[in-house]
Design a protein that fits this description.
6-stranded parallel sheet, 7 helices, 6 strands, alpha/beta, about 230 residues, about 15% strand
């Protein structure tokens, strides 16, 4: 029987995180949900740094879904404020560490000042290429696919899946090698459905604010023990 080739952590080009559990983390501590989201931002910074330190060049994070807009008005307002604060505070570090910022989602939903901060982050980091942080804001994979279909209508020939991918928000990124979801739920929740075709999936009970480098290393180690066939034998 032919040996199946195991995956290697060194083969990871792109890791994506569904950062779930901030609200429950706060509730367990009898704190407002906002405090859980703030702690989640701290974890995002630490985890992103740890991923890049391990030589993984692309990181995607599910920060604000298109469905999150249906949450209570005050919580949505707080989430938008956190996004603005995070980008303004960390922009110098992104530039210093040569990290390119990309965003996927319908950014025009956000207030003008938030859009300006997002666009400024894109402009000031656009020339970097070795490390990329891709942030999903007002993002839903089904909306992304519909958007791509509408963009593809301008073509006059049958397009390939590779060409279709060029109409997605992630056109400048490789597909994710693994997707990690914290918080205990075992679903993708409308995240990178096209791109995730052959991603390895990891579902953790750990709430996002508690996720750390040790768990990241455990995931990378398990990834190395998985066999990636991509539909082949």
């Amino acid at each position: 029987m032919k040996d199946l080739k195991k995956a290697s952590p060194s083969q990871i080009n792109h890791i994506a995180f569904i950062m779930d559990g901030n609200g429950r983390w706060a509730k367990q501590r009898l704190m407002p949900r906002l405090m859980g989201h703030k702690k989640g931002v701290e974890t995002l910074k630490k985890v992103t740094e740890a991923v890049f330190e391990r030589g993984i060049r692309h990181v995607s994070v599910y920060a604000f879904s298109s469905e999150n807009k249906e949450r209570p008005v005050e919580e949505v307002k707080n989430l938008v404020s956190l996004v603005k604060e995070y980008l303004k505070r960390e922009l110098k570090n992104f530039v210093k560490n040569e990290i390119r910022l990309e965003f996927m989602g319908a950014i025009d939903y956000f207030p003008k000042d938030a859009q300006e901060i997002i666009n400024d982050s894109i402009e000031k980091t656009a020339h970097f290429s070795e490390k990329v942080l891709n942030i999903a804001l007002n993002y839903g994979a089904q909306d992304e696919i519909v958007r791509a279909v509408n963009l593809a209508k301008s073509t006059t020939h049958d397009i390939t899946k590779e060409e279709f991918a060029s109409f997605l928000y992630t056109k400048n990124l490789p597909p994710p090698d693994l997707i990690v979801r914290t918080g205990g739920d075992k679903r993708l929740s409308n995240f990178m459905l096209f791109q995730a075709a052959y991603a390895e999936l990891f579902f953790l009970n750990t709430l996002w604010p508690d996720f750390n480098e040790n768990e990241l290393d455990d995931i990378l180690s398990e990834f190395g023990n998985r066999q990636r066939r991509f539909g082949k034998v």
